[in-house]
Automatic annotation (TrEMBL):
It comes from Mucilaginibacter roseus. This is Alcohol dehydrogenase catalytic domain-containing protein. PANTHER family: L-THREONINE 3-DEHYDROGENASE. Residues 10-346 form the Enoyl reductase (ER) domain. Keywords: Metal-binding, Oxidoreductase, Zinc. SUPFAM superfamilies: GroES-like, NAD(P)-binding Rossmann-fold domains. The keyword Zinc applies. InterPro entries: ADH-like_C, ADH-like_N, ADH_Zn_CS, ER, GroES-like_sf, NAD(P)-bd_dom_sf, Zn_alcohol_dh. Its cofactor is Zn(2+).
Amino acid sequence: MKAALKNREGKFDVEEINTPEIPHPEWVLVKIKVTGICGTDLRHWKKDEPEFRHEVMGHELAGEVVEVGSKVTSVKPGDRVVVETLLGDGTCDWCRVQQYNVCPNLYAVRTKTLSRSFAEYLIGPAEKMHLLPDHVSFEEAAVLDTFSVSMHAIQLSGIKVNDTVVIIGAGPIGLAQLQLAKLSGADVAIVDVVDSSLKIAQELGADLVINSKTGDAHKKIMGFTDGKGADIVFECAGGPSMPQTLPQAISYVRVSGKVVVVGGFDAGDIAIPLPWQHIQMAEIKIIPSASYAFWDIHSEMKLCLDLLAKGKINVKKMITHTFKLDDINQAFETAQDKENSGAVFVALQV
């Protein structure tokens, strides 16, 4: 099969490799139709990482089942599916209670199986395949991984009707967070430095959009919240911007409010000075949010798929660019250069 493999420059070489074979009777083989580039992928872009060299990456995808194991009954060849790419070891205490997003061996397992979507085919357990209604396209379904991350953060936040919410970052995660917060009955302000992303946020229902590079974000947020600060702030930028955005999140939240950390950190020890005395005295809650899994009895990805199928979330507006897998390096350049390209969700057709 054709696959994009990470090279020493941190870019991709499109080559032919072996198609994976179904290893267990409960697993299936999927022909990938569309996959996406997310913020996590971009943090690895143009970095020489020996552990990823000559490996397949990618974890936002939808496709068609082409082969099933002998014990699979939930899907069949020809079924259109969105694939949930979080797979733990299946043996730890967290996997046992469907909290596989915090499985200690999550990345060791998923990067060898389900998180390999920059290719033509992928294998995984049938339980990770969610059937798509006929009216939901592969392109739309590929964005559901993004929404699932935001859904988990929404659940952790305990959001309530009429809450005031600030979202930092108007990328795919932030725009998904915006839509879910609005569905929850909140008033939402969103902060970014890219005008094209903020324009999309406004079209998706943001009550206030703020370019923090050209305006006084803190002053505008205090005006938006009657001087108190937001009930909940979602940090959705992550990566190298975290040393700036996390302190900003603390400054935007009210006394006894919540800061939910959705954006991902880079690996290793990172020192970010914060006003810890204020955080303690104001009883501000800092809530880390990691990927997604189940909430109570519900798969968080299935919850998002249901919202999409019912027309309650707008995914099409977030898909700004589409490339072929052969053009993956150009796609990454476009996704990275969002201030000039206007990119939000960049899709790859496989």
